[in-house]
Amino acid sequence: MMSENITKQDIRKEIKSLRKTLSYEWIKKQSAILCQQLIQTEIFKSSKTVGLYLSSKSEVQTEELINYLHEKNIKMALPKKEETLDAYYWCSYNKGDTLQLGKHNIQEPCAKAPYSGTLDLILIPGLSFDLQGHRLGFGSGAYDRLLENNSAYKIGLGFSFQISGSIPAEKHDISMDMLATDEELHVINPLHNSLKSVI
């Protein structure tokens, strides 16, 4: 956990530096631990529709979660960049769907039609999080716009070293309801959308 009174720029610099030191083997191992913990939660098991991301090499790997959701026939949606705007929308993702490289060389669905349903749960990457649920990304605000006015339960995924003492929050920042790391699950909002139990 990083020190208090640190700026967003400082946190970004420190986390980016730490991520460069990680081996892909370590990332895969710790991601598997996190995913197994998450799969056992009530919120994950009870969700019928899930929004999540296809991970880059330095992020929490989501392949295990995607395979689980495919096996359970749970509907999925992935972020897809709009062609003319620096913004994203949710796009349906089914087993066997073709993917393409999008912005920042991240895989995304080829389909152009936005996901038309609601989402029960959204799994969100980030550079850093704090225990109040504040999230720090790369600074583009893309995820904040994607999550705006979305009532789904929001879980931030990160490794334990990505938890900061405090992240300065701004009006447009979207907070997480829960944080999942390779060491622990931190429930911030246990009664979201009338859920009786998260874990």
Can you give a write-up of this model?
There is one protein chain. The strands form 3 sheets. A 7-stranded mixed sheet has the order 3-2-1-6-9-11-12. It has a 3-stranded mixed sheet with strand order 8-7-10, with helices on one face. The protein is α/β, with parallel strands linked by helices. A hairpin with a 5-residue loop joins strand 4 (99-101) and strand 5. The chain has helices at residues 8-20, 24-39, 42-46, 63-71, 142-147, and strands spanning 49-51, 75-81, 88-93, 99-101, 107-109, 121-125, 128-130, 135-136, 153-157, 163-164, 178-180, 185-187.
Helix content: 10-25%
Domain unit count: 1
Span from first to last CA? 23 Å
Taken as a percent bin, the fraction of beta residues is: 15-25%
Low-confidence stretches: none
Question: Which H/E pattern describes the elements?
Answer: HHHEHEEEEEEEHEEEE
Q: Using the alpha-carbon principal axes, give the shape.
A: globular
The radius of gyration computed from the alpha-carbon positions, rounded to a whole number of angstroms, is 16 Å
Largest sheet: 7 strands, mixed
Count of beta strands: 12
| CATH superfamily label | NagB/RpiA/CoA transferase-like
Q: In the CATH hierarchy, what is the architecture at level 2? A: 3-Layer(aba) Sandwich
Judged by helices, strands and strand pairing, the structural class is alpha/beta
The CATH topology, please?
A: Rossmann fold
Number of helices: 5
Enumerate the strands of the largest sheet in spatial order, edge to edge or round the barrel.
3-2-1-6-9-11-12
Mean pLDDT: 88
